[in-house]
From TrEMBL:
Organism: Segnochrobactrum spirostomi
One GO term (biological process): DNA recombination
Annotated PANTHER family: NON-HOMOLOGOUS END JOINING PROTEIN KU (PTHR41251:SF1)
Residue ranges of every copy of the Ku domain listed in the record: 55-183
Quaternary structure (record): Homodimer. Interacts with LigD.
Protein name: Non-homologous end joining protein Ku
Family membership noted in the UniProt record: Belongs to the prokaryotic Ku family.
Keyword flag Aminoacyl-tRNA synthetase: no
Organism taxonomic ancestry: Bacteria, Pseudomonadati, Pseudomonadota, Alphaproteobacteria, Hyphomicrobiales
Job description of the protein: With LigD forms a non-homologous end joining (NHEJ) DNA repair enzyme, which repairs dsDNA breaks with reduced fidelity. Binds linear dsDNA with 5'- and 3'- overhangs but not closed circular dsDNA nor ssDNA. Recruits and stimulates the ligase activity of LigD.
An MF annotation (GO) of this entry: double-stranded DNA binding
The entry's keywords: DNA damage, DNA recombination, DNA repair, DNA-binding
Family annotation (Pfam families): Ku
HAMAP family: Prokaryotic_Ku
Amino acid sequence: MAPRANWKGYLKVAELTCPVALYTAASTAERLALHTLNRETGHRVLRDYVDRESGDTVPKDDQVKGYEVAADDYVVLEPDEVAAAVPEADKTLAVEAFIRCRDVDDVYFDRPYYLAPSGRVAEEAFTLIREGMRAAKVAALARTVLFRRMRTILIRPHDTGLVGTTLRFDYEVRAAAEVFDDIGDLRIEGEMLDLAKHIIGTKKGQFDPKAYDDRYEAALAELVRAKIEGRPIEKPAARPAAKVVDLMEALRQSAGMSPPAAPKAKATRAGRGTKAKAAAEKPPATARRRKAS
């Protein structure tokens, strides 16, 4: 059964228009859903909105949105006023520019969606747009009203379709300098850098999403099964505490290298080693006398 489209409209590139459908590419529907219960009765707990001052339950029809301009002073926004402020949806995904994919920093990526032609008639125009972008090695920046908000979407070729990723607005992304400015300007070179490059080289691989399981979800599912079957709950073994080691030693161990041999002990007095060697090679006095006789 084909998935249900979240949005249907038109992908527009200059004068070329193609009917398309937008599908959610990421979903949390498969996660375990836990409900809040009354421990004594086992019944589900319902959530009610109550007046903070009176404690009375407020019916849904009496709930309105408000913006706080000062302490406990709000500007009330009626539902029809909020609806009127929403940009008009023309169902057109209008491409404003074609850019290189790497021109958009990943921190702006929000949610991914699949874009597919809406019907057989649209396949030729859709394929033309997709293959044109693939040949030019570009992505498209488009804008449309999506779920009652004007959104910017980055569109890229993906297999036989397109993937569109909604982008966060500039004001939603914190400046990296707020976090990174306190990092010292250190230079790493020599053996330490060579070891780091060696370790990275030995760990090269490819991304396979199936290889990365959700350990929390798996543990939660096992806990539910154990409770249903009446089995005892086994606590996972505690992980050993990480040891703080010398950075260079940690690099050598990671690279599978044995630690450097300890330097040999040296005589504390100058010339002691030479005299000891000469004494060892010189025969005892009694031996010399016997040899002379």
